[in-house]
Fold:
Amino acid sequence: MKRLLAGLICCWVLHAAHPIWAQNAKREPITLTPAALEIHRQSFVFDGHNDLPWELRSRADAGFVKFDIAQPQSTLHTDIARLKQGGVGAQFWSAYVPADTMKTGDALLQTLEQIDLIHRLTRRYAETFELARTVSDIERIRRAGKIASLIGVEGGHSIQNSLSVLRQLHALGVRYMTLTHSDTLDWADAATDTAKSDGLSPFGEEVVREMNRLGMLVDISHVSVATMHDALRISRAPVIASHSSAFAVAQHPRNVPDEILAQLREKDGVVMINFFSGFVDPEGAKIMAKMFDVFRELREKYPDDADFDRAKARWRKEHPIPRGSVHTIVDHIDHVVKIAGIERVGLGSDFDGVSSLPEQLDDVSMYPYITQELLNRGYTAEQIGQINSGNILRVLRKAEQVAAESR
Structure:
């Protein structure tokens, strides 16, 4: 008995010293069970970030002609059939435009075009999607059997230093804004660029306050740790990281460190786990840590978009990264739960915005594999529902409450 007890203690110590993501880099594929599928069916996925609108723009198909998502689309991560198969009930569609539009001066123009594309997406496929502006809208659309579609602007460069523009974007249906993308702004520092303001400038603080007043979620994906601290300090509403993961698991500057996770517990925010292999796989994160710096250099060298895209593709081919797996994603969920609590984590895939995805998470049909692995690790049906959609719904309600109180 003493030897058995000693062995158990030894195993526990080894497990504590070597967390699950450091063990058995190759883990067995996940097998779906009827129990997990039923849990998944009873809840729904509310994903924090999908880049289909930019993918359509990049492929010159803003009119949904070449890529009719009512039909299977093998070269995209997203189409209607697979959204339904994956149990997606609400989706933040990203109105993303590149950060270098700050230099060309057309950030707002391109953002408005992307917002228009999302509006037209919901009208073109009105039997499947409906634009949502409030939690009540989401609930009504879900009862109608449709996918509630919300808009997130990815990067504060889109407002071109104007609170008036911010208000106009909100009027068009935007319900979160990522404070920066890859590049530092005049008023907010990015995670992957040189700092200017050591976080938020005074104008950046005004942006956060105005977002609170409007009921627009403050998104701290892509921003520096100092900007995260400032956003959490200033915001009266819960903040989100719409598509980020845990830095302690994979040390990429795009991920959220434990010091911020601990504050999210106090501030009632949510980290929505990103699926990009280069952010979530520990080895992949090391390889991709300087990715945005490399891409800035390539953009300077190749100003033509087609040449730039080819150069990026060559660089990625020369720097292969491990894909990771569904296990990897749940490792990040586990860590956020450990530090911040079950109420602080969600899903923010980045589908159609990334070049590599974990095994068994190849497209929007595969969310049930996350549910299965959560069940395998002992999460309850209620907890899985919180992760899939409950937590982000709670945060949206609180943002609406803060806005109502401001008025």
In short: The first strand starts at residue 45 and ends at 50. The chain has one domain: 46-406. Residues 119 and 131 are 7 Å apart (CA to CA).
